[in-house]
Amino acid sequence: MKLRRKCGKPSGFTLLELLVVMVIIGLLAGYVGPKYFAQIGKSETKTAKAQIEALARALDTYRLDVGRYPSTEQGLAALNRQPDGEPKWHGPYLAKNVPVDPWGRAYLYRYPGEHGDYDVWTLGSDGVAGGQGADSDVGSW
User: Fold this and answer.
1) How many Å apart are CA 104 and CA 94, to the nearest integer?
2) From CA 113, how far away is CA 95, in angstroms rounded?
3) Residue 83 contacts by C-beta under 8 Å, 6 or more apart in sequence?
4) Does the N-terminal peptide bond of residue 92 adopt cis geometry, omega within 30 degrees of 0?
């Protein structure tokens, strides 16, 4: 039995067809990529806000027990370790260690605060005061 070959064009894609597909994929990536990466920055900011709210609840509980907020020198570490000379401390006030911000840096704490009784904040993704978008500061105020 002999195999027959079909006559006509060979199968496959032309260079023009491949270029058209590559242009379409490039356009889609150019449109979707920036929107996707913008969402990543927003999720880190939302995480920072949630962590600051949890720290604020722990600080309020500390104040109920001790009668005042931890000093700036004691810092947020006072939520997990009893400071010297604090007999009314009934912590730890956090289930785990004090978290770092989503960018891997320690949260900043000041008592008394400039914006409220105390201030807890992070400097955003750039680590510098101010900024916009993912670089903006996130604070308890």
Assistant:
1) 19
2) 25
3) 70, 74, 89
4) yes
